[in-house]
Amino acid sequence: MKKLFLFLFIAAGIIVMACNKTTTLPAYTPSIAFTVASKMSHAKDTVSSKGDTLWMTASGTINDTSGKYAISANLKTADSVNRTPYAILNIKKIPVTFTNAAPDASGMYKWSATMALPFPAVATKTKLYTTATFAFGQFGSAQMGNTASTDSKYTYAK
Predict the structure, then answer these.
(1) DSSP helix/strand/coil, 11
(2) Is-above-0.70 flag for pTM?
(3) Of 37, 58, 95, 131, whose CB has the highest number of CB atoms within 10 Å?
(4) CB distance 152 to 131 below 8 Å
C-alpha cells in the first residue's frame, strides 16, 4: 500500500510538472507620454529686489494634444545659499503652445510654455535659485503620470 501511494504521488508530480505551461514575458517598458527639456530659460538675469516676477519658459514633448490631460507645474525660487524659499507656485494646468502641427517620428508633439513666478521683496544682491517640476496626468486623477524636472536657474536681485 505504501508503494502504491508513493507511486501515485510521484506520478502526480510528474504530470503536474509536465503540464506547467509557463510563459516568460519580456520586461515591461513604459511608454513615454511626456517629457520636459532639461534646460529652462528665463527672461532676464537680474530682477528688482523690491519684488518682481520671474518669467520662465520651458519646453518638451507630449503625445496628446486633445487637452484631456493636463501639464501641471510646481515652480519654486529660493535663496541660493541656504535654500530659504521666497516663492512657491503650483499651476494646475499650464497654458502650452504646440510648435508642430503633426507629430514627429516618435509620435510626440513639441510644446512650450511661459510661466510667471512672482516673488516678494528680497535683499539686494541676493542670488535666487529657481527650479520647476512638471507632471502630466488626467484632471482629478490621483496618478499624475510621469514627472520631469528642469535644471535650476540663478538670478540676481539688484
Answers:
(1) helix
(2) no
(3) 58
(4) yes
